[in-house]
Amino acid sequence: MAGMHHQPDGAAFDVVLLLHVGCVVVGLATTVASAATAARLRRLIASPAALPNAVARYFTPGVNWAGRAMYGIPVFGFALLAMSQGAYGWRDGWVMGGLGIFVLVVLVAESRMWPAERRLQSSLAGPIAGGAAPGPDVLPDARAMSLSATMCIVLLTLGSVLMVAQP
Questions:
Q1: Of 37 and 45, which is predicted with more confidence?
Q2: Closest of 128, 131, 132, 138 to residue 43, by C-alpha
Q3: Considering all CA atoms of the chain, what is the largest pairwise distance in Å, rounded to the nearest integer?
Q4: pLDDT band at 2, cuts 50/70/90?
Q5: What is the pLDDT of residue 83?
Q6: What's the rounded Cα separation, in Å, for the pair 78 and 95?
Q7: What pTM did the predictor assign?
Q8: Which of 72, 90, 97, 140 has the fewest CB neighbours in a 10 Å radius?
Q9: Closest by alpha carbon to 113, among 152, 145, 151, 141?
Q10: Side-chain half-sphere of 56: how many Cα atoms within 13 Å?
Q11: Nearest alpha-carbon partner for 102 in 37, 51, 28, 43
Q12: Is the separation of the CB atoms in 123 and 139 below 8 Å?
């Protein structure tokens, strides 16, 4: 076991680790909600009925701040690296792999998922306020949001497995 490093410990390290994991959990939960709500919207588009209240509330215009919690993942990850006293470093493949996965998550979320969500908020604002059913014109954005959110879920899960396994 000569290659094994001392596992960092201490209250400060534990708090930062909890914040790091908390950002993953919040980011994952909000992305699951995004995927599920977009998928539900896709099914509802064919219906002549107005959107259910929960779906209408989800697409109320505004920034998905809870989803942005995922930006805390690398912030606290970098802090953990600094606090690890050399136990973890940039040369560890799992650290670089995790950073690469995070970059992919951000690229997908910022280029596909959140823009589609904002366009849906804008497109649905009129029908929601008027109690009308959404038109088929929102289907491409609902599909883009659903697929990109699913992609982010897979990547966040893969990153989580990598961080736990630390191969």
A1: 37
A2: 138
A3: 68
A4: very low
A5: 93
A6: 10
A7: 0.87
A8: 90
A9: 145
A10: 15
A11: 28
A12: no
Q: Which residue has the tokens 């596992």?
A: 7
Distances (CA, A) of 108 to 65, 81, 155: 16, 25, 10
Which tokens belong to 117?
């969500």
Instruction: Specify burial of residue 85 (Cβ count, 10 A radius: 0-12, 13-18, 19+).
Output: exposed
Is the pLDDT assigned to residue 154 strictly greater than 80? yes
Residue 130, pLDDT > 90, answer: no
Residue 91 one-letter amino acid = R
Beta carbons of 151 and 107 less than 8 angstroms apart: no
**Residues 94/38, Cβ–Cβ less than 8 Å:** no
> What token pair was written down for 136?
């088929």
d(CA 94, CA 115): 30
Looking at residue 122, its amino acid is S
Closest listed residue to residue 77, CA positions, set 94, 56, 60, 54: 94
**How many whole angstroms separate alpha carbon 83 and alpha carbon 86?**
8
